[in-house]
Amino acid sequence: xxxxxxxxxxxxxxxxxxxxxxxxxxxxxxxxxxxxxxxxxxxxxxxxxxxxxxxxxxxxxxxxxxxxxxxxxxxxxxxxxxxxxxxxxxxxxxxxxxxxxxxxxxxxxxxxxxxxxxxxxxxxxxxxxxxxxxxxxxxxxxxxxxxxxxxxxxxxxxxxxxxxxxxxxxxxxxxxxxxxxxxxxxxxxxxxxxxxxxxxxxxxxxxxxxxxxxxxxxxxxxxxxxxxxxxxxxxxxxxxxxxxxxxxxxxxxxxxxxxxxxxxxxxxxxxxxxxxxxxxxxxxxxxxxxxxxxxxxxxxxxxxxxxxxxxxxxxxxxxxxxxxxxxxxxxxxxxxxxxxxxxxxxxxxxxxxxxxxxxxxxxxxxxxxxxxxxxxxxxxxxxxxxxxxxxxxxxxxxxxxxxxxxxxxxxxxxxxxxxxxxxx
Amino acid sequence: xxxxxxxxxxxxxxxxxxxxxxxxxxxxxxxxxxxxxxxxxxxxxxxxxxxxxxxxxxxxxxxxxxxxxxxxxxxxxxxxxxxxxxxxxxxxxxxxxxxxxxxxxxxxxxxxxxxxxxxxxxxxxxxxxxxxxxxxxxxxxxxxxxxxxxxxxxxxxxxxxxxxxxxxxxxxxxxxxxxxxxxxxxxxxxxxxxxxxxxxxxxxxxxxxxxxxxxxxxxxxxxxxxxxxxxxxxxxxxxxxxxxxxxxxxxxxxxxxxxxxxxxxxxxxxxxxxxxxxxxxxxxxxxxxxxxxxxxxxxxxxxxxxxxxxxxxxxxxxxxxxxxxxxxxxxxxxxxxxxxxxxxxxxxxxxxxxxxxxxxxxxxxxxxxxxxxxxxxxxxxxxxxxxxxxxxxxxxxxxxxxxxxxxxxxxxxxxxxxxxxxxxxxxxxxxxxxxxxxxxxxxxxxxxxxxxxxxxxxxxxxxxxxxxxxxxxxxxxxxxxxxxxxxxxxxxx
Lengths: 424, 493
Known about the structure:
The structure holds two protein chains of two kinds. By secondary structure, chain A is of the alpha/beta class. Chain A contains 18 helices and 16 strands. Chain A has three domains: 2-15 and 288-422, Rossmann fold (3-Layer(aba) Sandwich); 29-142, Nitrogenase molybdenum iron protein domain (Rossmann fold), CATH 3.40.50.1980; 172-272, Rossmann fold (3-Layer(aba) Sandwich), CATH 3.40.50.1980. The two termini of chain A are 38 Å apart. In chain B, the strands form three sheets. A five-stranded parallel sheet of chain B has the order 12-11-10-13-14, with helices on both faces. In chain B, α14 (325-340) packs parallel to α20. Chains A and B meet through α1, α2, β5, α3 and α4 of A and β1, α1, α2, β3 and α3 of B. β5 (68-69) of chain A pairs antiparallel with β1 (43-44) of chain B.
């Protein structure tokens, strides 16, 4: 944890294992792999492990997905479950004959008993006649879910991206690290559309295997979330020579900067117009909410990369960001965040439950932004809570900024907090 | 349901068709050999979770207790998400944060350091150490690790404080059972570790509620209070997972309530134990019976008239208390509502799924309502479940033309495929995992059991007791009405 002071800010230690015994907000590598891979609609997802992991893995970003599992029992653990997995892959393909591929997730149990996942997948692939890809991300294999993101990105690169052939699409772009939470992707796509650009594949908010096969035809990769998109971007640059830009579509200035950066790449003249129009409309619509937010303190604690951009967006709302932190942000994320927050803001990595609680109690923020797990605890202290990734409307783009303003203003000024604070 | 497409008058209801919007694109017929779960190696949409989460649920029902999960971070985080989504409450669960080194060298360091880190940050009274698949496969010797952890605590915080912290080891290898069994094991191990017999049995009754919601436990407390029965509820989540908003709070935050340690110790001196769910908590009752000779009653989950009657009779028999007028009136009001709603409920064909005890209880109640269960499915396989529902079917034989189908274990895929073969189905009763099935079959879903995360407030609303049954009845009738008569103007009750 560090406090920002001037430009020579040091950064919090990050990418370190969590201390045992705390109520960590981090998750496991399997969770990270599901986070990236779950939305792929035309693959079947098979979890090799006890049934619990399959049950939990069904829900990603509050959406439910169909999941298959080998439901390992005591007997399988003792005698090995390779044969069962092989049968399960065949049966899965028989049940979903239209599936273009099978993704087989390893879990802790499988990691420890040491199954030959790649071998079984290879031999099953020959029979079912489509790729059977092991996702070797057992929960314990890293200190947080980011490792799962990386494993997922590598396997997408290796097995699915750019299999389709075809010529480059001149106005084609890919979005990397965009998961289409509550319509975010639609907002971004509309903005890019206004500039004449077409999204070929969004990893992985709209990443069917068919779309991924075409992804190499893009001329530019737009990285929206660094932690889930960076590796893909690097890989695609190496493999297909596609350049990438790291941008954010959260907040007005960030969105404007993103559109300008993209238009610079394409030498488009239209960006200025799109940006001006979007800014004007958004400022107009957000104005009524800003009065309620001005000078209010807000704390941000997210999964990975978005704290910097979001901190800036909240500052644009006229709020004072007291803390920006993440569960598993990397050095670059904290560097970026360091530039985007004001002096005195606390930057923190992998804060656990107790630390967050302590901080909320000390800093008395007017709003806290983070994940569902923290929501109910922070609310118990009488502090309004905004869930991000968001729950009900897009936050990306110019229109999304208005939604953000609206929701933040609604939460901060909700009567319930006054009623609760008043006591009897 | 698309209201605007329904003509308002002139067409009799039986000729109204609501246009089908398929939930899944391109439905393909299934290979019939692969439909029964028993024929498959693969499980599709399981309706059970793993053992550790059941044990965590239990520990969260103890006053100032924190579960410590000996596994990877996901084992804790996923469970915390699940609890948060259902109860809308914070779930304080510690993780041992297994990383690769733990997988190689075992979890000794994680547990010993973890207990120390947890204690100095939270000062819990009880730590429930919950194991996972990884620690069980590696063969962590939890008992000796805990000794070491205790020694470390003694050195760091002094022997006096260290001795006050109770640590209970709950072995829950995920692959050996479901959340139901996890809860069951927690009940047994807590009693093994803590319950003592001092003198002659008193007049208190032990209640082990099983996987019931805060609203249900409140209803049980209401019944106990009305009868004047003093009772200990083991794993009382009614306050810990339904806490009021009363800022400011002390830090570290602990919710109010939960079963107190002293009460659990006293459970060895009770006059009887009632496990409301035989599969979830029944082992605890059996342990007390074998060890201390405390008579045990297992189930049935008190949903509906007969099952609640049975609970009241047991309580009356053990304590000598009469069944008060208040409860008799509640029973009468329930029966009155059942009679009033009869033309909506009778002969409705219903499918029920969920945890075995809940399904058995709801099945009996639907029969009492004159409905016809056509398929019942327990997500967790249970030895008692088939006998229990078969007994209900035998008792209400005249409701059935064909024998209802009973699934014990299996998955929701198998259940769904079976329901598709039925000529008619009016209602599904089950948890939120049935949403897809209900959409696909165009049948209303009444949400009951664990988990319910897509509707608000269901965790606070009881289904047990006479009043709970009445609430469930409303829910059933209104679901049928909403679905059959989507335009309210044409339907007056």
